[in-house]
Every structure is written in structure tokens, then in C-alpha cells.
Automatic annotation (TrEMBL):
Signal peptide annotation: 1-22
SUPFAM superfamilies per the UniProt record, alphabetical: L domain-like
GO CC, alphabetical: extracellular region; plasma membrane
Cellular compartments annotated: Cell membrane; Secreted
UniProt keyword list: Cell membrane, Glycoprotein, Leucine-rich repeat, Membrane, Repeat, Secreted, Signal
Sequence segments annotated as region (Disordered): 406-431
PANTHER family according to UniProt: LEUCINE-RICH REPEAT EXTENSIN-LIKE PROTEIN 3-RELATED (PTHR32093), LEUCINE-RICH REPEAT-CONTAINING N-TERMINAL PLANT-TYPE DOMAIN-CONTAINING PROTEIN (PTHR32093:SF131)
Annotated source species: Vigna mungo
Protein name per its UniProtKB record: Leucine-rich repeat-containing N-terminal plant-type domain-containing protein
Lineage start: Eukaryota, Viridiplantae, Streptophyta, Embryophyta, Tracheophyta
InterPro entries for the chain: Leu-rich_rpt, LRR_dom_sf, LRR_extensin-like_regulator
Domain of life: Eukaryota
Pfam family, one: LRR_1
UniProt keyword Membrane present: yes
Length: 431
């Protein structure tokens, strides 16, 4: 009986070992050695996949601008100028300029809008407003819309635009007093409001904008006198022509020493010219034609060493034309000097030479011995009613060393280009 038990136990052990060895052999065959020392090494593992690319930079500024432009087209009559304002890239739209906005994110943004000469009108004869366009793109640096049909007010949002430098709303249909929003746009360098329907006084704050270089507000309906704050302007180009301004030209004009071109023509200025105008040493253009000014030409005008265009025509000036003015190099060398339609009585040799060269126009004055002068009776009537200037001694003040014409060699240079400010008298000419 014990022998039988042992035999049974041995048989069971043999079966168990066979099963174990068979299973392990199968594992070795399937796994090519199973990691035993005498087996071949496993193949190298594949490198991990590269990390996914970073998501594209969010261009929310550009997208917001695009939506504004596309939305604006819905308020405008069909117009070829903005017919391509569709699609995903506003930088390709006609009249749109893009740039990188200078903030830490450095997103692309709409930096400028140029719709000069586009002739845009409101859809179905509705008013075409600046709001909805100018007030929705805070990244703007310039906004030029000469010769369109914009009306209404200027959005106050522009006062918060950090890099807004140029505003051209000329030749539109803007109405009302001088826009206060402009006065709060402290970064402005270029301002063009000409050929609109603006009225009222010119606010003194305009002349305190410390970066303003160009002021074109001609051909509106501005009234009142020029404020003394005029002296504070840093501007080089001023065009106040063809308004309804009155009063004298203030002596403070002489403190605006950056002035290069000044157009006061076509207003109702009165009184005598202040001698301080002679302090404008950089001025190349000075035009007060078609006003109600009177008195002699101040001798300080002989200090206008850069002047090339001097226009005093169509006023009530009288007396002698200073020889020092006619000797100025800018006028001698193909300048433009007009004194026509006044009451001047005398010109010296230097002035007569300019007349012969067709530089100086003295037609319709009271100068004996020259052709094309006023009738004697008309001159006599005028001189029987003239009023002297309030400070006649100042007219002889010369705030510079006397000009020596021998120090300047006469040249025959070509005619200089037309001044920039005279371009402003054409409504469709623009920056």
C-alpha cells in the first residue's frame, strides 16, 4: 500500500514538471530568448514623438479691426474703393495699413486708414458717420478721409488712442463748433479740417498741443479774433484762410518762431501789422491778402530773411515800400511779392528792379509814374480818411542787423516748388 502511494506521488510530480517546462519553453520561443544571457538583445525602442507645435499667436487686435471694417461696409453705398474689404486678412484691404502694435504681445494691428478721395456716401442716403469706424480701432496712428461725405461729430474715443498722430477730415460735411475731441488728442502732429462747415471761435487750447506741426482749418466759417495763445503753437504750417476771422493779427504771432508758412488770406482782419512779424526768421510764406488791414509795411519785414512768398494784396496798406524788403534774397531770386490793390505811394530802386523782373506786383496803387495805378481822385479820397496806426514808432523798429545786399550773390536758381500750404486751398489735394 505504501508503495502504491509513492508511485502515485511520483507520477503527479512528473506530470507537474512536464507542464511547467513545456510552458516555459513555449515562453522562450515566443519571446526570442525571454531575456536570458545567451539570447539576442531586444531591438532599440522608437524615439517619442515630438511635442505638438505651440498654438498660433492670438491676433485679437487684427481680428477686431477686420470685423470693424467689414461691418462699416454695411453702412456705405456700393463703392469700388472698398469693394475688396472682405476675407480674413484686413492688411490686404485697399487703403489699410498694418503694423506690429508696440506692446508686450506685439500683435499685428490696423495702424492706419487712408480713404482719401474715395467718395464714400451713406447707404440709401443715410448719414455717413465717423462713429462705427474711427471709434472702434484704438491702434490707429493715422486716419485720412479727404473728399468723402462724412458728417456728424468726431468720436471721443480718439482722445484715448496712444499713438494717434494724424487726422485728416478735410472736404467732408462736418458741422458744428471746433471739435473738442481734437483738443484732447495730445499726440496729434497733423490736423486737417479744411473745407467743412465748422464755425465759431478758434479755441486757445489748439495752440497748446505740443506736438502739432500742421494746422489746416481753412475754408470753414470760423469767427472771432486770433487768441494770444497763438504764440504757444509749435506748428510750422498754418492755414487759416477763407474763414470769417476778425480783429488785428496779434503781436504774439512773432513768438511762434517755428512758423514756416502762414496763410491768413480771405478773412476780415483789421488794423495794422505788428512789427513782431519780422521775428519770423524761418518763414518762407506769409500771406494776409484779401483782408481789411491797413497802415505802412513795418520795417521789421526786412528781417524776414527766409521769405519767398509775401502777399499783402487787396488790403488798405499805404506809404512807402521799404527797400530792405525788396532786397531780401528770397524775393530777389525768383520769389513772389504782391502788393497790388492797395494805396502805396512810393517804391525805391530795389523795388523797381523787382517790378521789372515781374517779381513784385504793385498794380492798382497810388504810385506816380508807374502804369496801372488807381485814379488820382480815388487816392485823394482814401488819404483824406486814413487813420494812423496806434503805435507808429513801432513801425520803424528793426529787430535784426540791417541786411547787407552785397553779402548775397544774386543767382538764377530755378523757381522753387509751390509751398505746401497753398496746396491746402485745393479741396481735393491731400497729404
Amino acid at each position: 500500500m505504501p508503495t502504491m502511494n509513492f508511485f502515485l506521488s511520483a507520477l503527479l510530480l512528473h506530470s507537474f514538471m512536464a507542464a511547467v517546462l513545456g510552458k516555459e519553453a513555449s515562453h522562450i520561443i515566443m519571446h526570442n530568448g525571454g531575456g536570458y544571457p545567451y539570447a539576442s538583445p531586444p531591438p532599440p525602442m522608437c524615439p517619442p514623438p515630438p511635442p505638438p507645435p505651440p498654438p498660433p499667436k492670438c491676433q485679437t487686435r487684427l481680428e477686431n479691426g477686420r470685423r470693424t471694417l467689414v461691418g462699416f461696409t454695411g453702412s456705405v453705398d456700393r463703392n469700388k474703393y472698398i469693394s475688396d474689404w472682405r476675407g480674413d486678412d484686413p492688411c490686404k484691404f485697399n487703403g489699410i495699413r498694418c503694423a506690429e502694435y508696440p506692446d508686450p504681445e506685439k500683435q499685428r494691428a490696423i495702424a492706419g486708414i487712408d480713404l482719401n478721395g474715395a467718395g464714400l456716401s451713406g447707404k440709401n442716403r443715410t448719414p455717413l458717420l465717423l462713429s462705427g469706424l474711427l471709434d472702434k480701432i484704438p491702434e490707429l496712428t493715422f486716419f485720412h478721409v479727404n473728399s468723402n461725405n462724412f458728417t456728424g461729430g468726431i468720436p471721443s474715443e480718439i482722445t484715448q488712442y496712444k499713438y494717434f498722430f494724424e487726422l485728416d477730415l478735410s472736404n467732408n460735411k462736418l458741422k458744428g463748433e471746433f471739435p473738442k475731441e481734437v483738443l484732447q488728442s495730445s499726440q496729434l502732429v497733423f490736423l486737417d479740417l479744411r473745407f467743412n462747415r465748422l464755425y465759431g471761435p478758434i479755441p486757445p487750447q489748439l495752440f497748446y498741443l505740443k506736438y502739432l506741426d500742421v494746422i489746416f482749418i481753412n475754408n470753414n466759417q470760423f469767427t472771432g479774433s486770433l487768441p494770444d495763445a497763438f504764440a504757444s503753437t509749435p506748428a510750422r504750417y498754418l492755414t487759416f484762410a477763407n474763414n470769417q476771422l476778425t480783429g488785428p493779427i496779434p503781436p504774439s504771432v512773432g513768438a511762434s518762431k517755428n512758423l514756416v508758412e502762414v496763410l491768413f488770406l480771405g478773412n476780415h482782419f483789421q488794423g495794422c501789422l505788428p512789427y513782431q512779424i519780422g521775428l519770423l526768421r524761418k518763414a518762407t510764406v506769409f500771406d494776409v491778402s484779401k483782408n481789411n488791414l491797413t497802415g505802412p509795411i513795418p520795417r521789421s519785414f526786412g528781417c524776414l530773411e527766409s521769405i519767398r512768398y509775401l502777399n499783402l494784396e487787396c488790403n488798405q496798406f499805404y506809404g512807402e515800400v521799404p527797400e530792405t524788403v525788396c532786397q531780401l534774397p528770397g524775393l530777389r531770386d525768383r520769389g513772389n511779392f504782391s502788393l497790388s490793390n492797395n494805396y502805396f505811394t512810393q517804391v525805391g530802386p530795389a523795388c523797381r528792379k523787382l517790378i521789372e523782373c515781374n517779381v513784385l506786383d504793385v498794380s492798382n496803387n497810388c504810385i506816380l509814374g508807374l502804369p496801372n495805378q488807381r485814379p488820382h481822385g480815388e487816392c485823394s479820397h482814401f488819404f483824406s480818411n486814413i487813420k494812423p496806426c496806434p503805435n507808429p514808432k513801432s513801425l520803424n523798429y528793426v529787430p535784426c542787423k540791417k541786411y547787407d545786399p552785397s553779402s548775397h550773390t544774386h543767382t538764377t536758381t530755378s523757381t522753387p516748388p509751390a509751398p505746401l500750404s497753398y496746396n491746402s486751398l485745393d479741396p481735393r489735394l491731400h497729404r
